[in-house]
Structure formats: C-alpha cells, structure tokens
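Lab notes, practical 5.
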Amino acid sequence: MFFSPSRLHSRTITGPLLSVLFFLGPPACSIVEAQSPEYLISAGGDTVSPGQGAFSSVRLDSAGSSIQAWSFGICQSDPSAVLVDLQPGSTTETVRQGAPADFVMLSMEPEGWTMSVVVCLLGCAVLPPGSDYELARAEYALPDTPGAPVELCPCGSLGTPTIPVSVGVLGVPTVPMTGCGQLEVSAPVEFLRGDANDDGFVDLSDGIWLLNYLFQEGPLRPCLSAADVNGDGGIDAADPIFLLSFIFVGGATPPAPHPGCGLMDGQTPADCTLHLACP
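Output from the prediction step:
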C-alpha cells in the first residue's frame, strides 16, 4: 500500500538522489512551459449509486519519445469527495521490465493528491510510446445523496514543494496535455424490463425493435437493462426470442422490474441512464 496521510510515502530509494530532485521542487525555468500534444495525462471519472464507492484511474497516452519519469497532482473541485485509498496503477507496477518503478511517491494533500515516479534510477528501463497506461488509481467516498459532480483534474499546484505536471523525456521535463474527469452520485432510474423501445408497453414492437438493433444496426434506447429481457446481463438474440415466447406462447415472465416500473437488485446508474416511460 502506498497511500499515507503523511505528506509522502515512497519506495526505498537506491542510486543517485539527483535522479529524483526534478520531482521535489524543480526551478521553474527547467520545465518547458508549452504543453506537448504528444503526451496526455487524464483523470478518469465515475458515476455511482448512493452509498457506492467511486473510482478514478489516472492514465497516460504517449505518442512521443519514451518516458523516464512522470509527476502530477490531482486537484478536486469540492471536498465532498473523500479519498479513501490510493494505489499505483498497473503500468507503474510493471513498468520496469515487469517490475514496479524504482521510485514511487504518492501523497495526500488538502485539495487532492500527488504522484511522482522514476522508472529506473540507473536508466535500465523506460515507458515506451503507447496509450491507456494506468499510472494510479484512487477510491473516493461520495455523499449519500445526488448532487453536483466533483471534478478531478491534473494540476501542478499541490505539495510542498509543488509537484509539477510533467513527463521526463530524454532527461528533459516536458509538460503534457491534461484531461479531467467527474465523480457523480446518481439516483438509479426506474425502468420496465422488456420495454426496449421505451413506449411504456411490452409487446411485439419491442421484439421488432430488438431484432432491428441486433441484425440491422438499428438504435438502442439508453436503458440497456430494459432491453435485457431475460435478465442475463447481456443483449443478444436470446432476448427477442424470450420476449416473443412470453407474448405468444405463454413463456416465462421477464424478471423484475416487470410488469411495472421499478429497480432491479444491485442496479447501478450504468444499467439504465434514461427510461421516459417510467416516472
């Protein structure tokens, strides 16, 4: 575990300390101020039901030269999101030829958290160009009621001394592009299972709607669980067959919520984002 309420928690450092001084307060003139479009550090978002934990992964896309090190802060727009766990991402844990980076520092700050990494203090490994590299992952506790989203953005204003948003390329700190994410609590949306076309009824038109989606590239309504007629967690040919059997030959009844609007056990916001037929 690399999360600590103290200012920093790092792996044991072996090798020249000068290799990491860049992260611990570099002079402003040492960083190229213009953002490089070849690199992107972005914070992920999450939408959860009340009472659920929210997760955010910070990821890196690199189309330039190989990266020797990186650092960033993650600032949040509102203190209602409480950081409860912070861990190195899968890339950080395997970047040094399958082993973790030599130097990893994760620190909780009053308005967010910071990360500083050196892949190999002796130059034995680098992060090659690629996309969707997971640098770190964080878990947050959110309020129990829906409210305004909390924005998470890479920033260079946290820490003492300040930790910059930067990637180390060929020994030169370079400022990447950045992207923000949002954490949000959303109340689950009620829906009617089998009402795939969202007209308030479960009938032949829903079977036709599903067949059109599956085999003719037709549209699908935003309430995915309404189209999952047999409740197996997917939308495939079994769903229109289940529905038509229910309508015409007395087959099994669709699982709840049916025959009226409601929620299913364990429902998350992603299961149904909008179902106009239900109030």
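Observations recorded by the TA: Residues 1-32 have pLDDT under 50 and may be disordered. The chain has two domains: 9-185, 204-271.
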